[in-house]
Amino acid sequence: MALGKPVDWARDYRVGMGWPGGFARSIDYVNRDRPSDVKVPWEISRLQWLIPAGQAYLLDADEQYALAARDILQEWIDRNPLGYTVNWSCTMEAAMRLFTWTWLFHVFANSPSWHDEDFRAKFLASLYLHGDFTLRHIEKADINGNHYTADLAGLVMAGHFFGGVGNAGRWQDVGWRGLQEEIETQVFPDGMDFEASVPYHRLVFELFLWPALYRKACGASLPDGYIERLRAMARFTAAYSRPDGTSPLWGDADDARALPFGGQKLGDHRYLVGLVAFAFPDTDLAAQAEGPRSELVWVAGPELAASFAPAVRPVPSMAFPHGGAYVMRAGDHHVFIDCGPVGLAGRGGHGHNDALSFEAWLVGAPLVIDRGSFVYTASFEKRNEFRSTSSHNTPGIDDAEMNRFDPGNLWSLQDDAQAECTTWRTGDEQDLFAGRHRGYRRLGVDVAREIRLDRRSGRLEIVDTIDGEGEHEIAVPLHLASSVQVDRSGAAVRLSSAGRLFSLSASGDGWELTIEPTSISPSYGVVEPSHRLVWRRQGALPARLAVTIEPDGNDTACAP
Questions:
Q1: Torsional sign, CA 487, 371, 393, 199
Q2: Which pTM does this prediction carry?
Q3: CA distance 443 to 62
Q4: Are the C-beta atoms of 112 and 63 separated by less than 8 Å?
Q5: Which of 20, 142, 194, 226 has its CB surrounded by the most CB atoms within 10 Å?
C-alpha cells in the first residue's frame, strides 16, 4: 500500500474514505453506513512498519533509515495533535504507539538525524504526552479485556523509559500493579486467554510478556506467579501451534501484535514459546520451542539466541479445561476442539458461536478449518456472518444462534451455550473427546458431540447426537481449508490436500449432503474461496450423524 507524501493519517486507503479532524472523543469512528474501517488508519499510526527500518539500521548503521524514521515521526506528530484526530479516539492506540516509539528511540537515539534538538524535544514531549493520555483515559471497566491490558502495558513501557521524569513512576506503578491483577483475571490457570480467540491469545500474551521483559532488563522484580502464568500461556501456544507453523483461526482475528520483530508467517505463534523458555528458563517448555528463532535474535542478540538450542520433543495431546480447548496431537495429526465458555467472561467479546467446533490437520494436510473473522466495523453484515453458528464446524438447529446476539452490537454474545466436556482421554492408540452444550435448550434441543482420533492412522470420527422433542431442521457443516479439493461420486466423497488423499463417509438416517461454496478469512480483511460440506436433516428427534475422515494409506493426490 503506497501512502504517499504527506500521509493522510486519518484515511482508510482501501476505500478512499477518511475521518474529519476535531476533538477525538467526538469522532464517530464506527461509521456503520460506510465501508470504511478505522483499523486502517489505526494500524498505520501504530508505526510498526518502521520497525524494519530500525532493524536495518542496527545491522549496517545506514543513516538513511534514521532520517526516514525521523521524518515520518515528525509528520505524524505535526498532523496528529494531542487528542485531535481519529488516532486519539481509542486509548489503546496511544498505548500501542508507546511500544513502537520507545523501541525506535533506543535504536536511533545516537544517530546524527536524531540529535536534532528540535526534533528530539518534540518527539520526547509527544511520547511523554502519550503516557499521560493513556493514564488519563485508561479503558477500565467492570470486565476488562485486551484494551485495558494494552493501556497498562503501555504505561509500564513508558514508565520505565522515562524513569524518574515527571509522572513516569506513577505510570510504572499503575501499569504493573494492573497487569499483575489482570493476568490472574484474564488468563485461566491453564494458560488460555479468556477472550476465546487464538489470535487474541497471541496479542494478550505479548502485552503481558513485553512489560515483564522490560522490567527484567531494568533489574526490577517479577513475581513468581506472574512468570508461571506466562509459562502456562506458552504451553497453550505450543499445544495449538501446528508443526507447519500455522495456528487455528479460532475466534476473532485482527492480526495485532505489540512488537513484531520476526519474519515468520502471520499465523506462526511458536516464537512466544521460545521467548518465555529463554527469558524464564524452563527445561520442559524449552523442549516445545519449535519454529524460527528470528524473534529471539532481535530480543536477545544473535549470540545468546544461538546458544538457545534445546532438544525438542513432540508436544503431546493436551486438555485446557478452564479455557475449554482440547488438542489432539500425534505426529502430523493435529485436532483443535473448542468446548469452553463464551469469550470475555460470558459477554462475547472476541469469541464466536463455535462451541463443539473443531479444526483438523491430518498427516500434515489442512482439512477442516474455521472460517476466521474477516472484518469488524467495515461491514456489520459480514462481521455477524463470520461469528455466527453456521460459519463454524458445529451443528446448527433451526437457523438459530447457539448464543443469541444483537446484530448491532458487534462484540456481545449471550451466554447460552455453556459448553461442557464430558470425556477426555488420550492414549497410545486413540484420543477421545466428548462434549455438549445448552445453546438450544430454549428450543427443547440438546447437542452432544464425540471426536475420536486414531493416533496411528489419522482416522478421525465425528459423531453428533441431537436429542429433544418435535421436528427440527439440523445443519452440520464442515468448512474446508481453501487448498482442499473435493470430489464426489454418488455417496463417495474424496478430499485431496497437500498431496494427500482422504476418504470421507457418513452414516445416519435422513441426512442429505451438499457441497457448497464458501469463503475463509486467513487474516483480517482477507478472504479466500473454499467449499464446505453440509449435512442437513428435517424431521423428528433424536438424530445421529457419524462422519469419518480417513487418510488413504500412502496414496498421493494428483496435481491439480
A1: positive
A2: 0.96
A3: 67
A4: yes
A5: 194
